[in-house]
Amino acid sequence: MTDASIIEEINTWTTPLFVTQMPDHDFLKEALLTAVYQQKATQTTAIESQIAPKAKHALHESTLDFLDLADANVMEAKRALEELVLEIAASVNQAFWPEDMEADAHIIESWYHVTQKGGYHDAHSHPNCSWCGIYYLEPGDANIEGNGGLNRFYDPRVNAEHYADPGTAYLGGHGVWDFTPTDGQVIIFPSYLKHSALPYFGDKDRVVIAFNCIIEAY
Length: 218
Description:
- Keywords: Coiled coil.
- It holds the Pfam family 2OG-FeII_Oxy_5.
- Residues 67-94 form a coiled coil.
- InterPro entries: CHP02466.
- The chain has 218 residues and is α+β, with helices and mostly antiparallel strands.
- It has one domain: Jelly Rolls.
- Helices cover 18% and strands 32% of the residues.
- It is built from two helices and nine strands, in the order E-H-E-H-E-E-E-E-E-E-E.
- The protein has helices spanning 25-42, 72-92, and strands at 18-21, 56-61, 103-124, 131-138, 151-154, 176-179, 185-190, 195-197, 206-217.
- Helix 1 (25-42) crosses helix 2.
C-alpha cells in the first residue's frame, strides 16, 4: 500500500456513557431506601414534581430536591455522585480544559422513582444541565428475563436509520441501546441523550435516584 492509499479513520460525534458501582452502596442502600419511602408516604400525588405526569405510569416521583434532604446518608450519596460526575467530566474534557482549571460538579436536581408493576416512563431528555445520572438503588426484578424495567437509550443521530443496506450495519440497525440495571449501579450520560424506562413487570418495587448535574469552573 502506497502513501497515497492510506485511509485515516476519524471518529466524530460519539456519545459517551459511563457505568460504575456506587461507592459504599452496601452501607447506604437501606438508609436511602428508608428516606425514599418516608418521603413517598408524605406524597399527596404520584408525580410530586408535576413534570410530564402523562409520560409516567404506575410510579411515584418526588420533587426535584431529594438529594438536598438534611440526612447524613442522603448527603453522602450526593457527595459521592458529584465526585463521580466530576471525574467523568474531567476525563472527557481533558483536551479542552486549560491545564490549571479547577472545577466542581453540582447536582442541581434530583428525584426518586418508585416503580410498581406495569410502570414506565416515556422517552425524554433533560435540559438545563450537562450530565445526568441514574442510581439503581433497588432494581427490583428488572434483571429477570421478561420483567422489563430496563432503561432504553436512543441514538442521537436523528437520520441514522433513514436508509439501511449492508453498508450501514455498523450503525446497529435498531437505534436503541437497552441497559439492564443491577443493584448499586450508576449510569451517567450526556443530558441531550434521549432515554426511557421500559415497562416493568416485577413484583418488587424498582427504586432509582436520578439526578441532573452542572460543572462549574473556577
